[in-house]
TrEMBL record, chain A:
It holds the Pfam family NHase_beta_C. It comes from Rhodococcus koreensis. Transmembrane segments: none annotated. It comes from the Bacteria. SUPFAM superfamilies: Electron transport accessory proteins (SSF50090). This is Nitrile hydratase beta subunit.
From TrEMBL, chain B:
It comes from the Bacteria. GO terms for molecular function: hydrolase activity; transition metal ion binding. Keywords: Hydrolase, Iron, Metal-binding. Belongs to the nitrile hydratase subunit alpha family. Fe(3+) binds at residues 119, 122-124. This is Thiocyanate hydrolase, gamma subunit. NCBIfam families: thiocyan_alph. The keyword Iron applies. Residues 19-209 form the Nitrile hydratase alpha/Thiocyanate hydrolase gamma domain. It holds the Pfam family NHase_alpha. It comes from Rhodococcus koreensis.
Length: 99, 229
């Protein structure tokens, strides 16, 4: 079961960067849209410690961000986007303030 | 200005060894010592891994251009469809090495969307289809700047798009690997798959260039001012 559906607006948690997360600092705290589902796999937080067989698996999502939402002084055009993948634990439903 | 060999500084070996080089050497030496593989195995594997070039990717794109059904399959399941042109992402280790991938996705360029790939966290690259990444792809300069100033960076490669074309950056931060499928240029009607593959160069599949009818990876464009003639 996946928590988010295609088209859902999600905010990346602004959580700690301690240890291995593979969640880039530049997307934390930013809101984007789920555009694709990815199959569940072991989260990097566990895989980094060699827990491949007994690590926690989670669904992953491709999240599309508007570049102008990521960078306050983005110099390209309004329609430009950036896509990257996030594990479920890093995402939460976007609040009303973010829509 | 006269040329003199005395002007050259003597060649000096760099003393700098990175943490990862030390780690690689340590693990390699231990593996050999414990008989996991031999020195020759290691040499042969390195030689093979480094000999994989971008021709597999070119073949995929050219085939997709001439065969709509193949294109559908490629876009729907990149990993599986690669096998049709003899590329098995799990070969030869069974776990995906030399690229620590899980899934392979092909990103189709359209008149409205131009895709470009980067890995900001390290240097993930679709090695089974494109071979080793170019040096610049692995530099912090490209990795930092492409996500922040994509239009400026691709402009440095000579590529410009108007405001109604979305430039879409794909940061491969997890286990997926990506390759761009460029648009087939005009003037290639009736070309064979091999001819088409010759203009689908490495950079067009990273997304910092688009295919040109008179430009392959081994021949310069015909309009370079005749400098080559």
């Amino acid at each position: 079961m996946t928590k988010f559906e295609i088209g859902d607006r999600v905010t990346v948690k602004d959580a700690t960067s301690m240890f291995h997360t593979r969640t880039q600092a530049f997307i934390r705290g930013h809101t984007g849209v789920v555009v694709e589902h990815r199959p569940a796999w072991v989260i990097p937080e566990d895989e980094a410690w060699g827990r491949v067989d007994d690590g926690r698996t989670e669904p992953f999502y491709v999240v599309r961000f508007q570049q102008t939402d990521l960078w306050p002084r983005y110099t390209g055009y309004e329609i430009d986007t950036l896509e990257t993948e996030c594990s479920e634990r890093w995402l939460e439903p976007a609040g009303e303030a973010d829509t | 200005m006269t040329h003199s060999h005395d002007d050259h500084a003597p060649i000096q070996a760099s003393e700098e060894v990175s943490e990862f080089e030390i780690l690689e050497t340590a693990i390699r030496e231990l593996s050999i010592e414990h008989g996991l593989f031999s020195r020759e195995d290691h040499r042969r594997f390195s030689e093979w891994a480094e000999s994989v070039g971008p021709s597999g990717g070119s073949k995929l794109v050219a085939k997709a251009w001439v065969d709509p059904e193949f294109k559908k399959r490629l876009l729907a399941d990149g990993t599986e469809t690669c096998k049709e042109v003899g590329i098995d992402w799990r070969d030869p280790t069974g776990s995906g090495t030399p690229s620590d991938y899980t899934y392979f996705y092909v990103l189709e360029n359209t008149p409205k969307v131009h895709n470009v790939i980067v890995c900001t966290l390290c240097s993930c690259y679709p090695r089974p289809v494109l071979g080793m990444s170019p040096d610049w792809y692995r530099t912090p300069n490209y990795r930092r700047r492409l996500v922040r100033w994509p239009r400026e960076v691709i402009a440095e490669f000579g590529l410009h798009f108007p405001s109604d074309v979305e430039v879409r950056v794909h940061d491969s931060n997890q286990k997926s690997r990506f390759m761009v499928m460029p648009m087939r240029p005009e003037g290639t009607e009736g070309w064979s798959e091999e001819q088409l593959a010759s203009i689908v160069t490495r950079d067009t599949m990273i997304g910092v260039a688009v295919p040109q009818v008179d430009w392959t990876a081994t021949t310069p464009p015909s309009d370079n001012g005749g400098a080559a003639r």
